[in-house]
Amino acid sequence: MRTKQRELHWVVRGGVARGPGGKTHPIDVDAVVVGRDPGAAIALDDPEVSAVHCELRAVDAGILVRDLGSTNGTYVGPLRIREAIVTTPSAVTVGRATILVEPESEHRVDVGWSDAFGPLVGRSPRMRRLFGILERIAPTPLSVLILGETGTGKELAAKAIHDASPRKGKPFVVVDCGSIPPTLAESILFGHERGAFTGATERRHGALAEAHGGTLFLDELGELPLDLQPKLLRALSERQVKRVGGSAFEPIDVRVLAATRRDIAAEMNAGRFRSDLYFRIAQVRVELPTLRERPGDIALLVDTVCARGGRSEYAPAVLGWIEQNMAAHDWPGNVRELVNVVSVAATLADVPGAIDDVMALTRAGGGVDVTSEPTTAFAEAKRKAMLDFERTYFTSLGEAAGGNVSEMARRSGMERHHVRAYLRKHHLERTP
């Protein structure tokens, strides 16, 4: 549920960029893209400049200058950089052009009241600002590109945008571009007529037609086959599609949301992604921060996961274990990894010693692997974690009690017949 608290501020050191011809561009927390493509905020007609060359962004220490995988590099003074923070007026060279970047005094950026947007939660300034942006763009028809590492919640953000838009209740169609078979890619997006190719036994709608009136979510956009990109751009621009093997166009009314974890700027500069499609879809670009960039949100996330699982009473114990044992963990799987850890711990927390045993098992590699993206459904992952925990718990309990079932029952706080049932289940009964 969306709540409101006091409005927060994000203190950054903004500035201006003076491009060729003296044109001034303000620099704030939203990235200013420099490149040869006409869609770039600072567009340079220079063959030595990549389609999307670099970006300028205000951070708390100054102006962040980040190269976007350009061919000829980005220079701050005489130094070629991948990423640098400019704190004094500096010349940034891209191709044959020089851009003067001038940091100014610190100023406050209002980040809004909301600490949630749909299922996403967070009280950090980055997340509150993100929620404010999503609240403003959700009711519009604008296409949105959502960037972020695996596990940051990109699909959740897309669904939340859809649910907060006038298209709520209409189709929300997901296409995973990374799993599209190349031979069926065009059919999946645009549909096909019966007999259009071998195996086409009936006429079918494509994802664009299925999403008519609603939203099409293109997950892992950076994986979209190159030969399909101009066809998708044409369909979005003309608002009509033609099935494979068909001759007639049909109108579509679709809002496009997309997400990618790939460095799509580098993909464009390498010729693997069309910049015109990128700027058509990225009318608004938002980036979900990693969990390591917002550690202050972990407590809220633990409370939320436990509450949604009906296990609120175990949230303090789970959070305490995380703070004590995982303080230095950088959460490579991001929020998805945290959710997995909390879900397993909260599910088993009413068994004595469960949190320590399950997490020790997990970190030793004997249970659920929480440091990588799960490859099974949650129910299956939970089932495996439960089995591993039970086997380890009752093996250790039996050794500590010398195999005495009554002592095992006393130590575990369980009835003896329950202990015996677990011993039989895991073949841990002692033979006379």
What's the layout of helices and strands?
Elements lengths: L3 E15 L5 E4 L4 E4 L6 E2 L10 E5 L4 E5 L6 E3 L2 E3 L1 E4 L3 E5 L2 E18 L1 E2 L2 E2 L3 H13 L6 E4 L6 H10 L8 E5 L8 H6 E2 L11 E2 L1 H4 L4 E5 L9 H10 L1 E3 L6 E3 L3 E6 L3 H6 L5 H7 L2 E4 L10 H11 L6 H11 L8 H15 L5 H10 L14 H23 L4 H8 L3 H10 L7
Would you kindly provide a brief summary of this structure?
With 432 residues, the protein is an alpha+beta fold.
> Rg to the nearest angstrom?
26 Å
pLDDT < 50 stretches: 364-376
Portion in strands:
15-25%
Number of helices: 14
Strands, count:
22
C-alpha termini separation:
58 Å
Mean pLDDT reading: 84
- The percentage helix is 25-40%
Q: Largest beta sheet, briefly? A: 6 strands, antiparallel
Strand order of the largest sheet: 2-1-11-10-7-8
> What would you call the structural class?
alpha+beta
The gross shape turns out to be: globular
Describe this protein with a few key phrases.
432 residues; alpha+beta; 6-stranded antiparallel beta sheet; 5-stranded mixed beta sheet; 14 helices; 25% strand; globular
